[in-house]
Amino acid sequence: MASTKKNTYGSYSGDTPRIALVLTPLDDKNLRLAAQIGATDVVYYNMNEMPTTAEALTDVRKHVESFGLRLSCVEGGPPMDKIILGTEGRDAQIEAFNDCVRAMGKAGIPILCYNFMSKGFVVGRNSYEVPARGGALTSKWKASEYDVDTLTSDGVTTHAQLWESLEYFLKAVIPVAEESGVFLSLHPDDPPMERIRGCARIMGSPEAFERLIKLYDSPHNGITFCQGCFSEMGVDVPSTIRRLGHRVHFVHFRDVVGTADDFIETFQDEGQTDMHAALSAWKDVGFNGIIRPDHVPMLPDFEEGHATEEKAVGYFSGKASGYTMIGRIYAVGYLRGLFDAVFGAAASAVSTALNPAALATVPPST
Fold first, then answer.
1. How far is it, in rounded angstroms, from Cα 103 to Cα 201?
2. If I label 234, which of 30, 218, 240, 274 is the partner at 20 to 30 A Cα–Cα?
3. Cα atoms in the 13 Å half-sphere on the side-chain side of 344
4. What per-residue string of b and e applies to 277-299 under the rule 16 or more CB within 10 Å gives b?
């Protein structure tokens, strides 16, 4: 079992992981909610773009901190389409990416989550209105019911092409990340299939992430461990945590029932992963990054869903996008219970990780 050396993430260097949330939208009401239900950290989420200056990022961080929370991660990052395909203009995109990394470092935001799926086909789902427990709605992916063969505007890409592009990218950006104190964290492909619509996909196995680590051996070349994606791969999630956890900075607490070519997303407590064993594995490897509930089912009696309401910016989907807010309340409660079971008394420190006084004095609703 690989053991993780404790990382310092901005101002945090504690022993336990922390519970983070994407807030859709990122407004005062949802910041209050995050503080009330026991999250400590916030993830800025936008799959299209991100604030590009230290000043703009600092403004977001200070707003989050005014609610007693910590802004620990940007998820999505700047555009990478030319970087991924290795086409003309990738050097300009790499320089823009490095500028964002430098800005994050100056603003004190330590984790940048990105993916390496070509923009011709990113996340695949057949439906966002699949019945789930108690009439909730969720999403599914079934390759046999999807047109997986029609080419996208990216044409046919190869695995060798993407691996070359990834290595070129890492050699250009990891030194900047090291200088800036920012940890890059690569998310798996979702679904983790080798090819969809002509688009090669390379981040779909534990072996791929071991190859990633070897391409540039630095703690700042890290992993976003989406438990749902690794579950889709058909691997044992707790064992894979022990295999890769030494290079993980960010965890997506999510689950499914099924395999890479046929799965349904579930509530966090009813998928095919033993979530207590998974969190115990994070404890065993000494993980002290952030864990956020991801892709929660939608509760239609309480929310309209993202076919009509504001969705996670840059994330196109139907109703049960996975980014509605009400289901996250349950997910955080379930995760807090697991924290108490796994970490014991240490878990009580999670709720006051930044500023205990601020949690009692967040700006009131108007």
1. 30
2. 218
3. 1
4. ebbbbbbbbbbbbbbbbbbbbbb
Residues 330 and 293: their CA atoms lie apart, in Å, by: 10
- Of residues 223, 136, 220, the one with CA closest to residue 180: 220
Say how many C-beta atoms besides its own lie within 10 A of residue 21's C-beta.
27
Chain center to CA of 171? 23
Beta bridge partners of 74: 44, 112
- 282-324: per-residue pLDDT in tens? 999 999 999 999 999 999 999 887 655 555 555 556 688 899 8
Closest by Cα among 33, 165, 30 to 88: 165
The two tokens of residue 360 are 């009692």
Taking alpha carbons only, the member of 31, 131, 44, 57 closest to residue 363 is: 31
> If DSSP codes are grouped into helix, strand and coil, which group holds residue 23?
coil
Who's near 222: CB < 8 A, 6+ residues apart? 183, 184, 185, 186, 247, 248, 249, 250
DSSP 7: P
Which two three-digit tokens encode residue 96? 């823009």
**How far apart (Å, rounded) are the C-alpha atoms in residues 31 and 70?**
11
CB atoms within 10 A of CB 29: 12
Global pTM exceeds 0.70:
yes
Q: Which DSSP string do the residues of 83-113 spell out, in sequence order?
A: HHHT-TTHHHHHHHHHHHHHHHHHHT--EEE
Burial of 23 (0-12, 13-18, 19+ CB in 10 A): buried
Q: Are 320 and 130 in contact (CB under 8 A)?
A: yes
